């Protein structure tokens, strides 16, 4: 297993370096920050001075080398916009993003497991159809629409929730629901499919024959076997959520890495783009490793397989 | 089967009620507190980028700090556009308009207890003008000539401009004075000024709180605490007033405006205009440029598409700017006249059928793309061959600024320009003078008037700019004014505030009153 994890870490690190390099050059294709930061009437001398101060006057390859040297020491340079280390800007945005992702994913999983299991037990009958239609409809709702309508209904009309913000617990409800929209449908379908397979397996049939009730069968026997595909899809969703949500940031003023990246791109804040991509990349790698570890815990075959490779 | 469905329905009902209950419990405190404690919650579009006293050229920074935390020697009276005293009692210019002597107000202290005197003022001015810490204020846009400071006595400060400068007191409105204990070799995020409020808690990404300064020299504002929040989405800002989460939302969009007197319009002295080229056919013929003026149906376009966000307009600057021509009426909508002018030009061999580009950018103002499409239609109707191009800011800037390379397709570019200073020197040298970075005009008569105005002050200066305006509007036709832009804000019941031309950059808490 450790060999497997080490190999996984190494390949992930290689792709992270690749992504960071691509982002370095792509960001610079979007144009010069000088036009945005200097007044409209800036003279060529002022533009040159700005570029010199920010190291943008050097040849691209020299800039790239400086960037690499800094990146090895985790120094991505300072944000032009906020005038503080870019890595600090990116790291400060991660706690709210990760907390929101954790809560949203946890709740989505609970709902998906309950709904998916019910659908599997009542396969092709009314509850199954109702659950599938409902969860797929939920997943098809555009998140920006849901966010704005959510504010109009729950904050403006019903006065149950605040419109936005994130300092009170109630302010987290709409952002969490918005982030949960997409995963619920997919996860429910995955749970349903895996559960149908598991419930059809011989050992479950056997247990049923021995008189176990449906609830016990699902919870004690089938769920554990069904959990492998669920974990891998949930892991995939988690990796997506680590990127943060731009809608949640802009509509609910919920701080997070998505908002930081969008702001950095619009402000041509190259250092912050690079630092954020690095932080998100590390986050995705950690999620993937966690998924692998959970796999190993759930399924002894993974552990045994890796052990043989020693 | 029926039994199963019933059980399923019951389970579903249980889950739904539990969720609703949870939402209800958590939402119990969402209705917000009453404004009786005289605390104010103001929701803005963006968070300030910098809290340094020398970065208040940026509207997001200035809207919170200027006039509330920080004060300057002089300020602009938003109603008249005139420069009036603030921390200076009075001032006097030398005959050549180079040396300006300011007599400072006595009995003023900074929030940290430091005394405001000539020495402190000089330190603050030098921090902005004569250090290399990258201040947003004090750039060559605001101060074209180097300035030296001399302390004459405790309450007299002399400032000398290298060149004659007729609007020096106006320029001093840009220098917010920081305590002498502010670091002069680095930026700070702790602005210490002389204003009625001190900076309180700052929660990055969420809020900034201001608390009253007990030793303020002037009249204490009614508000006892101010909290600023930021919401990007205009609908959310407006909703926060409805739900009682905020007392003032600025700005809001026309779609969220109410007719109950709590939505107020204000001009931020911003004019939306078009600029034609002059250096290549067909725009090198003034008749073609004049035809553009007659072709556009401002009343209909602005009335229908800009609703409460603009008024049809004929001039380059707002009425508070000294180049404004009282009673001037521009060429109205007359498509026949436009076609006639184009035909005349064509008969003289001008290539009026050359394809021209109408250049804009999507964020020029909300809904600007629809406005530009209508303008393109107007131009096509009178005989122009128009291609509409909507570019991102960076690409748009490259077409706005000189140089204009010969291979460039002839274009008309859409511009939205504000001048809150009241002085045309923040518009004309850039957009009208032939040396201006954003100017396509080459008129030596206008250049001479602008250059002369630079050295004069008061009425004399205004008259020179107005003369330049007349020549620009009657003979050159390079700039085509479309609308005087307006913005909207929304107040909660019990709060009163009259917005003005400076609201976008100077939201004075002292001007906000409680009626409830």
From TrEMBL, chain A:
Its main location: membrane. It is found in: Cell membrane. It comes from the Bacteria. It is a multi-pass membrane protein. GO terms for cellular component: plasma membrane. Keywords: Cell membrane, Membrane, Transmembrane, Transmembrane helix, Transport. Belongs to the binding-protein-dependent transport system permease family. This is ABC transporter permease. It comes from Amnibacterium flavum.
């Amino acid at each position: 297993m450790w060999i497997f994890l080490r190999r996984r870490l190494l390949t992930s690190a290689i792709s992270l370096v690749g992504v960071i390099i691509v982002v370095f050059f792509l960001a610079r294709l979007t144009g010069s920050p000088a036009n945005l930061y200097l007044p409209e009437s800036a003279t060529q001398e002022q533009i040159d001075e700005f570029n010199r101060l920010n190291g943008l006057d050097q040849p691209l390859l020299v800039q790239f080398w400086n960037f690499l040297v800094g990146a090895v020491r985790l120094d991505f340079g300072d944000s032009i916009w906020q005038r503080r280390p870019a890595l600090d800007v990116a790291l400060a945005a991660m706690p709210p993003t990760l907390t929101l992702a954790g809560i949203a994913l946890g709740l989505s999983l609970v709902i998906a497991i309950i709904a998916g299991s019910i659908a599997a037990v009542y396969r092709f009958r009314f509850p199954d159809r109702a659950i599938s239609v409902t969860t797929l409809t939920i997943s098809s709702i555009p998140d920006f629409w849901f966010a704005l309508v959510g504010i109009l209904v729950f904050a403006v009309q019903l006065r149950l929730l605040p419109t936005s913000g994130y300092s009170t617990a109630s302010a987290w409800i709409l952002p969490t629901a918005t982030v949960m929209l997409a995963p619920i449908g997919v996860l429910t379908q995955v749970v349903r499919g895996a559960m149908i397979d598991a419930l059809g397996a011989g050992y479950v049939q056997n247990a049923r024959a021995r008189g176990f009730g449906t609830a016990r069968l699902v919870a004690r026997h089938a769920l554990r076997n069904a959990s492998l595909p669920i974990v891998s899809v949930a892991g995939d969703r988690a990796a997506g959520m680590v990127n943060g949500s731009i809608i949640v940031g802009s509509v609910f003023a919920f701080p997070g890495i998505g908002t930081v990246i969008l702001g950095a791109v619009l402000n041509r804040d190259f250092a912050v783009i690079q630092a954020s991509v690095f932080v998100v990349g590390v986050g995705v790698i950690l999620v993937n490793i966690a998924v692998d570890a959970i796999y190993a815990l759930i399924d002894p075959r993974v552990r045994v397989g890796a052990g043989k490779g020693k | 089967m029926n039994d199963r469905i019933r059980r399923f329905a019951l389970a579903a009902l249980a889950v739904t009620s539990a969720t609703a209950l949870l939402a209800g419990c958590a939402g119990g405190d969402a209705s917000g507190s009453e404004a009786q404690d005289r605390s104010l919650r103001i929701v803005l579009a963006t968070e300030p980028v910098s809290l340094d006293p020398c970065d208040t050229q940026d509207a997001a920074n200035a809207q919170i700090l200027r006039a509330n935390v920080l004060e300057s020697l002089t300020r602009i009276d938003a109603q008249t556009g005139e420069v009036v005293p603030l921390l200076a009692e009075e001032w006097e210019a030398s005959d050549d308009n180079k040396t300006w002597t300011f007599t400072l107000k006595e009995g003023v202290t900074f929030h940290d207890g430091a005394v405001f005197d000539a020495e402190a003022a000089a330190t603050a001015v030098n921090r902005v003008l004569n250090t290399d810490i990258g201040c947003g204020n004090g750039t060559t846009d605001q101060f074209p000539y180097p300035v030296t400071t001399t302390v004459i006595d405790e309450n007299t400060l002399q400032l000398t401009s290298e060149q004659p400068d007729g609007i020096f007191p106006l320029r001093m409105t840009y220098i917010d004075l920081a305590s002498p204990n502010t670091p002069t070799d680095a930026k700070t995020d702790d602005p210490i000024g002389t204003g009625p409020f001190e900076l309180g808690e700052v929660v990055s990404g969420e809020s900034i709180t201001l608390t009253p300064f007990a030793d303020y020299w002037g009249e204490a504002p009614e508000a006892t605490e101010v909290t600023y929040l930021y919401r990007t989405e205009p609908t959310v800002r407006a909703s926060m007033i409805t739900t009682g989460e905020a007392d003032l939302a600025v700005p809001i969009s026309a779609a969220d405006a109410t007719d109950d007197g709590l939505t107020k319009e204000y001009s931020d002295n911003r004019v939306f205009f078009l600029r034609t080229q002059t250096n290549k056919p067909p725009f090198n013929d003034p008749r073609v440029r004049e035809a553009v003026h007659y072709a556009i149906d401002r009343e209909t376009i602005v009335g229908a598409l800009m609703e409460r966000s603009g008024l049809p307009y004929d001039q380059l600057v707002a009425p508070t700017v000294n180049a404004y021509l009282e009673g001037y009426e521009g060429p109205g909508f007359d498509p026949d006249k436009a076609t006639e002018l184009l035909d005349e030009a064509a008969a003289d061999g001008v290539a009026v059928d050359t394809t021209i580009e109408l250049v804009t950018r999507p964020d020029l103002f909300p809904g600007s793309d629809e406005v530009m499409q209508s303008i393109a239609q107007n131009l096509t109707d009178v005989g122009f061959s128009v291609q509409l191009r909507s570019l991102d800011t960076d690409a748009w800037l490259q077409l706005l600024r000189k140089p204009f390379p010969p291979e460039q397709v002839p274009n008309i570019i859409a511009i939205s320009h504000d001048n809150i200073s009241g002085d045309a020197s923040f518009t004309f040298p850039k957009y009208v003078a032939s040396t201006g970075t954003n100017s396509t005009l080459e008129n030596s008569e206008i250049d001479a008037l602008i250059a002369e105005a630079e050295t004069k002050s008061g009425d004399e200066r205004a008259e020179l700019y107005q003369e330049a305006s007349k020549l620009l509007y009657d003979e050159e036709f390079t700039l085509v004014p479309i609308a005087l832009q307006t913005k909207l804000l929304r107040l909660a019941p019990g709060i009163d505030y009259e917005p003005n031309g400076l609201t976008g950059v100077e939201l004075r808490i002292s001007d906000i009153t409680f009626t409830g």
